[in-house]
Write a structure and sequence with these properties.
Blueprint: E1 2-7, H1 10-20, E2 27-32, E3 42-43, H2 51-60, E4 65-68, H3 71-75, H4 78-84, E5 88-90, H5 98-101, H6 103-113, E6 120-123, H7 126-136, E7 140-144, E8 153-156, H8 159-170, E9 181-185, E10 190-198, E11 203-211, E12 214-216, E13 220-223, E14 228-231, H9 238-258, E15 265-274, E16 277-284, H10 291-299, H11 302-312, E17 326-334, E18 346-347, E19 359-363, E20 366-369, E21 372-375, E22 379-387, H12 390-403, E23 409-410, H13 417-421
Parallel strand pairs: 1-2, 1-4, 2-3, 4-5
Antiparallel strand pairs: 6-9, 7-8, 7-9, 10-11, 10-15, 11-14, 12-13, 14-17, 15-16, 17-22, 17-23, 18-21, 19-22, 20-21
Helix pairs in contact: 1-10, 2-4, 6-9, 7-8
Bound molecules: adenosine monophosphate and glycine.
C-alpha cells in the first residue's frame, strides 16, 4: 500500500514510525513532514489544507490511503475532497469535524444524545454572555466557539477574569473563533483522554492517556499544547471506560449518524472523572499531540491496520492486541514557549539516541540546515519510551531527554507525577 500522512509534528512522526513498521506499507510519504520524519520516510512540500491539491498529489503518487494528522485540514474538508476523488482516507468529513471545530455544536449534540457534560450557555454577544456569568458566579469556564489552537479556553476562578475573557474574545483575541462563546459550568475531578476509532457502525477503543497541559512543574503556569503524556491513564478503569462508551461515545456517534454526518476516524474524548462518573470536557477529531506518541509506542505496527479498517468500515472485525505496558513522552520545548521563543538554534546529540521498538525521540518542530537539526517550533522534540511499568517508561524517556544537547530548550521533569505517586 502507498500511504500519505498529512502533518508535520510529533504526532505525525509517531504515526509514520508505526506505519513504517507494518509490512503492508510499500511506500510512505509525509507532507510536509519535518527533519525527524525525513530520516524514516519521504517528505513532500504540500499545502495540506488545500483539498484539491492533496487529491491531485494523491493521484500523481498512486496513493492508496491517506491519514490526516491535524484538525485544520479536516475542518477545511480535505477528507471530503479525497473521498470525492475516490481516495481512501482516515479522518472525518468537515461536517463531522465540527465536533472539534465548534464547541456549541458539540454541546448541542451532547444535549440531543443525553451525554453527561458541563451545563452551558451559548452567546453571540458580550452583554448576554456577561449577564450569564454574573448570574452563575465563579468559578466558570469561558470558551471561544471555534478552533483556537488549544488556546481559546479560560478557566476563570473569579468573575472579573471571566468578564475580561468575554471582552477579549469579542474583541477578536482569538480571531473568528471567538465571535461566539460558550460559557460552561466549572467541573472538578481528574482529567483523562480516551481514544476511540470509529466507522459509521462501530467504535473500537485504542487507549487512554493523560497529558500535562501547563508549562510549569506541578501543573502551574500558562497552558501549552501539552508538555508530556503517559498511557494508560489509571483513572480510566474498566468500569469508567464502559460508562464513557455507553453514556458518551456511542450516543454521540448515533446522533451524528442520525443527522447524516457519520463520524469516521479517531475520536479524542477529553473527560473529567469524579467519583467514578465521567463527564465530557470536549471532543477532538484527531489524535492528541503528544498523546499519539504514547499510543503509537504501545500499539506499534497494528495501528496502521486499525486505522485502515476504520477507513474501510471494517472495525467490527478488529481487535487490539494489548501488551501489559506503559509509555511516556516528554516534550522538549524552546525556551520561552508557550510565549515568545527563538527559532533556528542547533540541536545535537540526537544521533546517539536509541531507536528501538520501545524508545524513540519523535521530532515535533525541527528542520534541517547545513546537515544539522535546528529547532523550528515551540514544541520541538518528544522523548518517548515504553516499559513494563510507568516508572520504567519514565526512566527511558528522561534518559533520552538528558542525552540531547540543546541549550535553547527545556522540559518538565515531573511528567506522570500523579500516576507515579499513586504507585
Ligand atoms: P479544552 O481546550 O476544552 O480541552 O480545555 C482546556 C482545559 O481547560 C481542559 O483540559 C480542562 O483542564 C479545562 N477545562 C475545560 N472545560 C472545563 C470545565 N467545564 N470545567 C473545568 N475545567 C475545564
Ligand atoms: N495534547 C492536547 C491536544 O492534542 O489537543
Amino acid at each position: 500500500m502507498n500511504i500519505l500522512i498529512l502533518g508535520s509534528g510529533g504526532r505525525e512522526h509517531a504515526l509514520a514510525w508505526a506505519v513504517m513498521q507494518n509490512p503492508k506499507c510499500d511506500r510512505l510519504i509525509v507532507a510536509p513532514g519535518n527533519a525527524g520524519i525525513a530520516q524514516i520516510s519521504e517528505c513532500a512540500a504540500l499545502d495540506i489544507e488545500d483539498g484539491g491539491a492533496v487529491a491531485v498529489f494523491a493521484a500523481e503518487n498512486a496513493i492508496d490511503f491517506v491519514i490526516v494528522g491535524p484538525e485544520a485540514p479536516l475542518a477545511a474538508g480535505v477528507a471530503d475532497r479525497l473521498r470525492d476523488a475516490g481516495v481512501l482516507v482516515f479522518g472525518p468529513s468537515a461536517a463531522a469535524a465540527n465536533l472539534e471545530a465548534s464547541k456549541s455544536f458539540t454541546k448541542e449534540i451532547c444535549a440531543a444524545a443525553g451525554a453527561p457534560t458541563a451545563a452551558y450557555g451559548h452567546f453571540t454577544d458580550a452583554e448576554a454572555a456577561k449577564a450569564y456569568v454574573r448570574a452563575q458566579g465563579a468559578p466558570i469556564v469561558v470558551k471561544a466557539d471555534g478552533l483556537a489552537a488549544g488556546k481559546g479556553v479560560i478557566v476563570a476562578m473569579d468573575e472579573a477574569t471571566a468578564l475580561a475573557a468575554i471582552d477579549d474574545m469579542f474583541d477578536g483575541a482569538f480571531g473568528g473563533a471567538g465571535a461566539e462563546v460558550v460559557i460552561e459550568e466549572f467541573m472538578q475531578g481528574e482529567e483523562a483522554s480516551f481514544f476511540v476509532l470509529c466507522d459509521a457502525q462501530d467504535v473500537l477503543p485504542i487507549g487512554t492517556a493523560q497529558d500535562h497541559k501547563q508549562v510549569g512543574e506541578g501543573d502551574i503556569g500558562p497552558n501549552t499544547g501539552g508538555m508530556g503524556a503517559y498511557s494508560p491513564a489509571p483513572v480510566m478503569t474498566d468500569e469508567v471506560t464502559q460508562k464513557v462508551l455507553e453514556q458518551i461515545v456511542r450516543p454521540t456517534m448515533a446522533e451524528m449518524s442520525r443527522r447524516g454526518m457519520p463520524f469516521q476516524g479517531v475520536l479524542f474524548v477529553g473527560l473529567m472523572i469524579r467519583d467514578g462518573q465521567p463527564r465530557l470536557i470536549e471532543y477532538n477529531v484527531r489524535f492528541g499531540d503528544p498523546e499519539c506518541q504514547v499510543l503509537m509506542m504501545r500499539l506499534g505496527a497494528q495501528a496502521m491496520d486499525l486505522m485502515h479498517a476504520a477507513a474501510e468500515g471494517r472495525l467490527s472485525g478488529m481487535r487490539v492486541n494489548w501488551g501489559d505496558d506503559h509509555a511516556m513522552s516528554v516534550v522538549i520545548a524552546a525556551d520561552g514557549y508557550p510565549g515568545v521563543y527563538e527559532k533556528g538554534s542547533v540541536i545535537s546529540g540526537l544521533e546517539a539516541l536509541p531507536e528501538t521498538s520501545s524508545k524513540m525521540c519523535f521530532h515535533a518542530g525541527t528542520g534541517e540546515r547545513d546537515g544539522q537539526v535546528v529547532a523550528t517550533g515551540g514544541r520541538v522534540l518528544n522523548a518517548t519510551a515504553r516499559g513494563a511499568t510507568l516508572a520504567e517508561a519514565r526512566a527511558g524517556a528522561y534518559a533520552m531527554a538528558e542525552e540531547i544537547d540543546w541549550p535553547g530548550g527545556f522540559y518538565r521533569s515531573d511528567i506522570g507525577w500523579r500516576a507515579l505517586e499513586q504507585g
